[in-house]
């Protein structure tokens, strides 16, 4: 009897899809521009549904029914619908099969399957076909019935807390938070609107490359510059995947920019039983008219290990890493019966060229809505899937993929206990007569991110469910939707929860709800979660909440409104209105610090749009000191350590090699070049400088530019001083018994310049050093009071150590000549010693303390000589 009832339900569902059964109201075909009569039919309990999409059809649902309604003015051809109860409602869900532990091990270690070659098309070819695409035919997807997970028990060890680790403090957005926002709004622009798509919901999706933004929704894919200027690609999702969709409509797009290959990877499914998974790979990181995409496909039930025969892989997720593309899906029969979950590991190297595509399937995974985990680390060696536990709230399941780029194998479920969770409810919103859909407690996106300050990689993910006024999972009548996030560590060992937090409203009544979240951590270790918020007194707005890497574990700062909805939203009559299905938040691969999020809002009455929003990291730290604080003209390879003060999360950052944008610095004025910048910490960097010979001798400021383009300029910290070299050598004073005699060194710049003098007394051996000499070429005139001047040439562009000279004696009167005047002075003082009335120190030419024949000999030897001018 049970089989007959189930068979009957399948037959009726099939007839509905073919338009062969008429239900409540008159079935009618509404042509473009024709008057429309609403058609409504009750089908099934909405809480048990994976909602089908209707191209250009509006639908809604009531607490115990699913309604399809066509308001006037919408173009659609709708088959008759039959009011009915589902087989699952009557009999309960079908058995999805034994758990993994009881399955044949070969089912967990299949051999890779080799598919077809790819189809390559240029963007120009895709766009040339676009005007030829007729409006998409109306598609009523069969009812997809999920097991009723609303009453799952909590995991026995799941703590009833709002955050982890527990803090005992408030965790609501209205309580106890510093108001400073770690991220600030920057660029934002409209990506895709309902008028371009015709789908409900949009399945909000996007991605960012070093220079472009792709926004993709059900029904439309577009490329933009980072300032929102439209690019070469703007077409329907059907046209984009036309070469591989087999003439069947597409849905559920996913977008990833893969920095490890420099390619865009875009995936979706077609809607068939069995269906195909479709993948597009760009030829480069820049999408232009002349660039191309190569399109691949695989029919989900043909891939080893085969299974899920004739079924639909629905709600595909996607993660990309250095080795593979990971796609998870919920599985349904053509009658809409849930069959568990499966995943496919696509060897990435097989789709970076012409193909053929190589895929490995893992079926009956035993985790709900498996998310393929994204990972941009080029050193990654393992892949991951993560989802909610099918048996308990308060528990996540992780699957680890080994050898993902070769012959993948998969681990059994790795259980991870998290704070208690629950099922969400429909979200009330101002201006909406019917609640907005929060789906279930599935995870919406997952990504492994490396903190480049600590070098540690962790997994980040988020979902929504109902909580009480303390942020703890609840089914109370006053429970409200909240967004929960997780950071999971030790992925390659025994994964554990490092921290988690919950964004919720703690108001006693008329509480706002937060739903459809996605979270990401930047290379700086900061994180941001973006989501929708709405309530009885608030329309469906876009908000984000951030945290700094050093904030207390489990906490986010207060949510900030990124974009507001200003119109009423009643696109669907009755029940719960489709909304979101997912969102995505990513880090810009140009700098590893800027965050982009792609979120849904209401852009006009009864119309949705997906907005691309750029969020900036905190600015650079403020430089406060430079060591050394002076540099000299002509210096090369000078190392200067700059220290700074962090204010409200500000800090220096450099993502490291492989990123197009790096940490930079400049010195004000001219003549000082920054050769390199080395990141030491968020508050310290090292500069390597070259100072020109003619650099102005002034005090300079330093400007530091983080990779995201934000700058900070210091107060004057660095002084350029005149260049200094040393000139040294040995002076020989003819006849002197001690060379330690006062001398004057006159430096005469060549070929021109202002001379300067230095007074130097050599050592007793005649060794001398003149310090702080500006680099240059000089004629150096050396003069002592008893010796004739001697001029030597010195090339002092760098320090000189051999500037030697010999000075001739006999100049008793210090007029730079040895003549009769000197002879007369010597004769007058002859035979005198110090203290004698006729003593003359100048006549003591050898400095032995007496004027004698030795002095006379020196004078006669040099008589009639002149010193150098």
Task: Characterize the structure shown.
By secondary structure, this protein is mainly β. 6% of the residues lie in helices and 39% in strands. The protein is built from seven helices and 55 strands. The strands form 15 sheets. A five-stranded antiparallel beta sheet has the order 6-21-20-19-18, with no helix packed on it. The longest helix has 17 residues, at 2-18. The protein starts with a helix and ends in an 8-residue tail after the last helix.
**Strand-residue proportion:** 35-45%
Output the strand order for the largest sheet.
6-21-20-19-18
**Which of globular, elongated, flat, extended, rod-shaped describes the shape?**
elongated
Rounded to the nearest angstrom, the radius of gyration is: 40 Å
Q: List segments where confidence is low: pLDDT < 50 over at least 5 consecutive residues.
A: 1-107, 134-141, 168-179
Distance between the termini: 127 Å
- Class inferred from helices and paired strands: mainly beta
Q: Count of helices?
A: 7
Largest β-sheet summary: 5 strands, antiparallel
Structure summary:
By secondary structure, this protein is mostly beta strands.
Indicate the topology:
Blueprint: H1 2-18, E1 29-30, E2 49-50, E3 59-62, E4 65-68, E5 76-77, H2 87-91, E6 113-114, E7 119-122, H3 123-129, E8 144-145, E9 184-193, H4 194-197, E10 205-208, E11 212-217, E12 220-225, E13 230-235, H5 237-240, E14 250-258, E15 263-270, E16 276-282, E17 292-299, E18 312-320, E19 324-332, E20 338-347, E21 358-363, E22 368-372, E23 374-375, E24 383-388, E25 395-402, E26 409-410, E27 414-417, E28 445-451, E29 456-467, E30 480-489, E31 496-503, E32 513-521, E33 527-535, E34 538-547, E35 560-563, E36 584-587, E37 595-604, E38 607-616, E39 622-627, E40 630-632, E41 638-645, E42 664-667, E43 672-681, E44 684-691, E45 699-700, E46 702-705, E47 711-713, E48 718-721, E49 725-733, E50 743-750, E51 756-760, E52 767-773, E53 776-784, E54 787-796, E55 805-807, H6 820-828, H7 853-861
Parallel strand pairs: 23-28, 40-48, 49-55
Antiparallel strand pairs: 1-5, 2-8, 3-4, 6-21, 7-17, 9-38, 10-11, 11-12, 12-13, 14-15, 15-16, 16-17, 18-19, 19-20, 20-21, 22-24, 24-25, 25-26, 25-27, 28-29, 29-30, 30-31, 32-33, 33-34, 34-35, 36-37, 37-38, 39-41, 41-44, 42-46, 43-44, 45-48, 46-47, 49-52, 50-51, 50-53, 53-54
């Amino acid at each position: 009897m049970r089989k007959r009832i189930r068979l009957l339900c399948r037959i009726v569902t099939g007839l509905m899809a073919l338009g062969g059964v008429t239900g409540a109201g008159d079935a009618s075909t509404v042509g473009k521009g024709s008057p429309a009569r609403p058609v409504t039919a009750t089908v099934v309990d909405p809480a048990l549904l994976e909602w089908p999409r209707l191209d250009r059809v509006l639908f809604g649902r009531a607490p115990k029914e699913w309604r399809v309604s066509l308001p006037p003015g919408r173009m659609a051809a709708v088959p008759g619908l039959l009011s009915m109860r589902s087989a699952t409602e009557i009999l309960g869900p079908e058995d999805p099969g034994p758990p993994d532990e009881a399955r044949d091990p070969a089912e967990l270690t299949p051999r890779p399957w080799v598919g077809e070659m790819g189809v390559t098309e240029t963007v120009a070819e895709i766009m040339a076909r676009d005007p030829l695409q007729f409006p998409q035919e109306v598609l009523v997807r069969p009812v997809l019935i999920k097991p009723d997970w609303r009453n799952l028990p909590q995991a026995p060890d799941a703590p009833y807390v709002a955050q982890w680790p527990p803090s005992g403090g408030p965790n609501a957005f209205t309580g106890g938070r510093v108001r400073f926002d770690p991220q600030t709004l920057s660029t934002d622009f409209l990506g895709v609107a309902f008028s371009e798509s015709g789908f409900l919901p949009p399945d909000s999706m996007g991605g960012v490359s070093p220079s472009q933004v792709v926004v993709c929704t059900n029904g439309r894919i577009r490329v933009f510059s980072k300032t929102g200027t439209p690019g070469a690609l703007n077409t329907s999702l059907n046209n984009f995947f036309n070469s591989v969709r087999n003439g069947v409509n597409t849905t559920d797009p996913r977008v990833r920019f893969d920095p490890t290959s420099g390619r865009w990877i875009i995936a979706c499914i077609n809607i068939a039983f069995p269906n195909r998974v479709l993948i597009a790979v760009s030829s480069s990181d820049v999408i232009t008219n002349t660039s191309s995409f190569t399109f691949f496909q695989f029919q989900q039930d043909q891939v080893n290990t085969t299974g899920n025969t004739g079924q639909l892989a629905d709600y595909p997720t996607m993660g990309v890493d250095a080795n593979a593309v990971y796609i998870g899906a919920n599985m349904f029969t053509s009658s809409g019966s849930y069959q568990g979950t499966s995943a496919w590991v696509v060897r990435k190297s097989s789709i970076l060229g012409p193909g053929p595509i190589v895929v490995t399937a893992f079926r009956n995974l035993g985790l709900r809505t498996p998310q393929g985990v994204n990972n941009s680390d080029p050193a990654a060696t393992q892949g991951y899937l993560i989802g909610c536990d099918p048996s308990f709230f308060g528990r996540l399941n992780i699957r680890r993929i080994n050898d993902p780029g070769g012959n993948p194998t998969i681990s059994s479920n790795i259980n991870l206990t998290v704070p208690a969770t629950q099922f969400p409810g429909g979200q009330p919103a101002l201006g909406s007569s019917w609640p907005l859909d929060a789906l279930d407690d599935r995870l919406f996106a997952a990504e492994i991110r490396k903190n480049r300050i600590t070098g540690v990689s962790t997994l980040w993910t988020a979902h929504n469910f109902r909580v009480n006024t303390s942020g703890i999972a609840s089914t109370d009548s006053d429970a409200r939707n909240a967004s929960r996030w997780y950071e999971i560590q030790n992925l390659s060992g025994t994964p554990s929860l490092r921290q988690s937090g919950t964004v919720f409203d703690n108001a006693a009544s008329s509480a706002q709800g937060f739903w459809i979240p996605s979270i990401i951590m930047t290379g700086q270790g900061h994180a941001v979660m973006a989501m929708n918020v709405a309530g009885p007194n608030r329309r469906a707005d876009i908000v984000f909440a951030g945290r700094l890497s050093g904030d207390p574990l489990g906490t986010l700062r207060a949510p900030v409104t990124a974009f507001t909805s200003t119109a009423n939203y009643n696109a669907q009559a009755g029940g719960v209105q489709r909304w979101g299905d997912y969102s995505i938040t990513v880090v810009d691969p140009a700098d590893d610090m800027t965050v982009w999020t792609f979120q849904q809002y209401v852009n006009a009455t009864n119309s949705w749009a997906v907005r691309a929003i750029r969020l900036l990291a905190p600015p650079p730290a403020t430089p406060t000191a430079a060591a050394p604080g002076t540099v000299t003209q002509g210096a090369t390879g000078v190392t200067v350590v700059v220290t700074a003060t962090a204010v409200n999360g500000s800090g220096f950052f450099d993502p490291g090699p492989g990123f197009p944008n790096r940490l930079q610095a400049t010195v004000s004025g001219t003549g000082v070049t920054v050769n390199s910048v080395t990141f030491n910490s968020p508050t310290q960097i090292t500069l390597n400088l070259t100072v020109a010979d003619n650099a102005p001798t002034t005090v300079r400021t330093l400007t530091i530019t983080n990779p995201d383009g934000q700058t900070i300029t210091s107060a004057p910290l660095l002084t350029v001083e005149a260049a200094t070299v040393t000139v040294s050598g040995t002076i020989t004073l003819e006849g002197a018994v001690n060379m330690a005699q006062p001398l004057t060194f006159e430096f005469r710049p060549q070929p021109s310049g202002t001379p300067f003098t230095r007074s130097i007394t050599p050592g007793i051996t005649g060794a001398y050093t003149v310090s702080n000499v500006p680099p240059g070429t000089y004629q150096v005139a050396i003069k002592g009071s008893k010796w004739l001047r001697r001029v030597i040439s010195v090339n002092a562009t760098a320090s000189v150590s051999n500037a030697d000279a010999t000075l001739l004696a006999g100049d008793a009167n210090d007029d730079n000549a040895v003549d009769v005047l000197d002879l007369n002075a010597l004769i007058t003082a002859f035979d005198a010693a110090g203290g004698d009335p006729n003593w003359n120190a100048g006549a003591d030419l050898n400095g032995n303390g007496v004027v004698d024949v030795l002095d006379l000999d020196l004078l006669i030897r040099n008589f009639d000589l002149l010193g150098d001018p």
